[in-house]
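Our consortium's second objective concerns turning raw sequence data into structural hypotheses that experimental partners can test. To show how far this objective has progressed, the report includes one record in full. It was chosen at random from the queue rather than selected for favorable results. The single chain below, 255 residues long, was entered without modification.
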Amino acid sequence: MPPAVEHSSGHAIDALSQFNLVALSPMGGVLTFTQANLLMVIGSALVLALLYFGSRPSAVVPGRLQAAAELSYDLIYKMTSDTIGAEGREFFPFIFTLFFFVLMGNLLGLVPFSFTYTSHIAVTAALAVMVIVLVTIVALARHGLKFFTYFFPAGAPVFLAPLIVPIEIISYLSRPVSLSIRLFANMVAGHVMFAVFATFVVMMGGHSIIGAFAAIGPLAVNVALMGFELLVAALQAYVFAILTCIYLHDAVHLH
């Protein structure tokens, strides 16, 4: 999949330029405020607005906003309690925040001229590392040194320890890698496909009437991709949250 497509005018259309960060503040270095940071603030504000205005009416027959807020709350609460157990209530605020931070990043990126902050590996990796650090702290706090028995399953032959223990440690440390890359790769792939097929529309539709009719094909693909990306946006947020719940379940119950 080439990063750039050559337009008939001679200008290269870069499908990856949409992921470039643009500084919105005069500060430099690590303090630079970019469009990714702006979208994070907007996404957080939208979630807070949904919860605030959705919970205000408290009607017996909820309206759309109240129903959306209650459904969101119930969905994540059920996920944490069903996956982790009764202890899941302790981690509900964290899972709820994590789910909607990822979801809003995925959805806002589908708005024209917006930006998908979950398409940057730095963001997804930071979230994944935060998850694995929390999981490890919870496991150590609840089980102490017994936590390290997690890397050698009960009942396994002792002579296999030199083989099993390294495999289990690598598997444990690979969790943040798989979490971050899965989300990052899905977001990047979808938006690159958007850009490529949109380029086809422009290239084919600017030549002749026949080309304009032929451009309907890639345009239809982009319309279908929009529906597919909406599904992927929700699914990836759910997968990120449910895997976090599974890891927390292992930390709480040590299996």
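The partners drew two points from this record. The chain is about 70% helix and 0% strand. The beta strands are 4-6, 12-14. Both points have been shared with the crystallography group to help prioritize constructs.
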